[in-house]
Write a structure and sequence with these properties.
The chain has 281 residues and is of the alpha+beta class. The protein has 2 domains: 50 residues; 148 residues, Aminopeptidase, CATH 3.40.630.30. The protein is 40% helix and 22% strand. A 7-stranded mixed beta sheet has the order 3-4-5-6-7-9-8, sandwiched between helices. Strands 1-2 form a two-stranded antiparallel sheet. Helix 1 crosses helix 3. The termini are close together.
Length: 281
């Protein structure tokens, strides 16, 4: 399983942005002068916003705080958001949904404008972080042997950091099957609020660079739940193709079927068996 749950707009991110809007409509104080807009008084109230942040992982809370700070500095965008939510109270459900999507996209642009993405080694000292991330990101669980093996693969396992916060990870292993040297992506994913920020791309590029430098890998492959369309689209952008579908690949989640996605690094030999053997995570 190499990507997170099936795509859906992140409710916690929207919750933080809505909290930002609602908390700003407060009574004016002598300090922090209010502004008048459409007959309503607006005042920046970071304390109210902070208190309204919904309990979640440290990474999610940090992202929400950064989102709030960035948007507060961008008054024109902030004014547009206020107008969409408060000056047109007769908005249809469709229009309101578009407003939410707009705010989420604003968050994406502003966060990307001031971000640092880095990859770090997985060690015995931070293996618990990897376990916690996998528990949150993926709908399947991994046993102790998985984490023991991860500590042995060196550069094939990395934690992804966004502004020094661990928000994702990639774990791979070398697989010798079908008379080939193959790289199997066991997991690759990041926390939902951090998607679309280039973190997955950085992790996958790290893996592809390893294969390119090595020069002996025939292909890279992974399993993706058939309902995870965003993950499938992501890998296709990098040249992966669905080569088969494994029925009942997953034991405790629905849908249980998984696509096998593969990227060939060498031209396959004529007559080579194209079937991919099922490999346990």
């Amino acid at each position: 399983m190499a990507a997170g749950r099936s795509p859906q707009r992140n409710s916690s991110s929207i919750t933080a942005l809505l909290a930002l809007c609602w908390a700003a409509v407060t009574a004016p104080k002598d300090s922090d002068p209010p502004t008048q807009d459409g007959g309503m008084t607006w005042r920046w109230n970071p304390d109210a916003i902070t208190l309204s942040l919904f309990e979640s992982t440290l990474a999610e809370k940090e992202l929400k705080k950064e989102t709030i700070r960035f948007i507060a500095m961008k008054f024109q965008i902030w004014k547009t958001m206020k107008s969409m939510l408060f000056l047109n109270l007769e908005m249809s459900k469709c229009e309101l949904k578009s407003a939410f999507i707009f705010m989420d996209d604003v968050k994406h642009v502003l966060i990307c404008s001031s971000s640092r993405i880095e990859l770090g080694d997985v060690t015995p000292h931070n293996i618990k972080q990897l376990k916690r991330l996998n528990q949150v990101i993926f709908p399947v669980s991994y046993n102790d042997k998985f984490y023991k093996d991860v500590l042995e693969v060196g550069e094939l396992a990395k934690l992804a950091y966004f502004n020094d916060i661990a928000v994702g990870a990639v774990c791979c292993r070398v697989d010798h099957s079908q008379n080939q040297k193959r790289l199997y992506i066991m997991t690759l994913g990041c926390l939902a609020p951090y998607r679309r920020l280039g973190i997955g791309t950085k992790m996958l590029n790290h893996v592809l660079n390893i294969c390119e430098k090595d020069g002996t890998f025939d292909n890279i492959y992974l399993h993706v739940q058939i309902s995870n369309e965003s993950a499938i689209d992501f890998y296709r952008k990098f040249g992966f193709e669905i080569i088969e579908t494994k029925k009942n690949y997953y034991k405790r989640i629905e849908p249980a079927d998984a696509h096998v996605l593969q990227k060939n690094l060498k031209a396959p030999c004529l007559g080579q068996n194209a079937d991919v053997q099922k490999t346990d995570n």
